Automatic annotation (TrEMBL):
InterPro entries: DHFR-like_dom_sf, RibDG_C, Riboflavin_Biosynth_HTPR. Pfam families: RibD_C. It comes from Georgenia halophila. This is Dihydrofolate reductase family protein. Residues 3-179 form the Bacterial bifunctional deaminase-reductase C-terminal domain.
Length: 193
């Protein structure tokens, strides 16, 4: 059975992008990117909302970018090898292999996917992740905290849930990035306040 992991780069004040949608302040450099590559080797399926998928589809052809560093090439291979499910009511076609579109986020279908999967799954993007968190589907939270305060934008966590967590792992990087990995501490954690 695979775990569902919510993992994203976030600012110190809890935003995955600023008010203008920018997130370059959190782009990993070589050391943290190699660590991210290791974390994502166990992922067999990515669950995306449309906007996050459109951002991540870059990795479908990243191996063709001149002078792509080896850690970028490795992440491209990892990403390309995984299945992708894009939840969108507006997307008409996909730009990557191993990708399908679902029109509705169905918690029961995601539970079945977790049960049937030998590899882990990720839910990517704060809007889609909020649905998974509210449904009690997320098993782990992995925050890659960048050394920036952005003051607003798209929040990592939704406002209307409480989840009790236990720290499973912590790692610091030379550039000030901190990786935090938490597991869910109890089964009733996603009930709205």
């Amino acid at each position: 059975m695979g775990k569902l992991i919510y993992s994203m780069i976030t600012s110190l004040d809890g935003y995955v992008s600023d008010r203008e949608g920018n997130f370059g302040w959190g782009a990993p450099e070589e050391e943290s990117h190699e660590f991210v590559n290791e974390q994502f080797r166990s992922v067999g399926t990515y669950l995306y909302g449309r906007r996050m998928y459109e951002t991540m589809a870059y990795w479908e052809t990243a191996h063709t970018v001149p002078e792509m560093p080896p850690f970028g090439l490795e992440y491209a291979r990892i990403w390309q090898a995984a299945d992708k499910v894009v939840y969108s009511t507006t997307l008409s076609e996909v730009a990557s292999e191993r990708t399908r579109i679902e029109r509705v986020f169905d918690p029961e279908a995601v539970r079945r996917l977790k049960t049937e999967s030998e590899l882990d799954l990720t839910v990517d993007g704060p809007t889609l992740a909020a649905h998974a968190i509210r449904a009690g589907l997320v098993d782990e939270y992995q925050l890659i905290v960048g050394p920036a305060i952005v003051g607003g934008g798209n929040r990592f966590f939704p406002d209307d849930v409480r989840v009790d967590l236990e720290l499973l792992d912590l790692r610091r990087f030379a550039n000030g990035v901190v990786f935090l990995r938490y597991g869910v501490a109890n089964d009733t954690s996603s009930a709205p306040n």
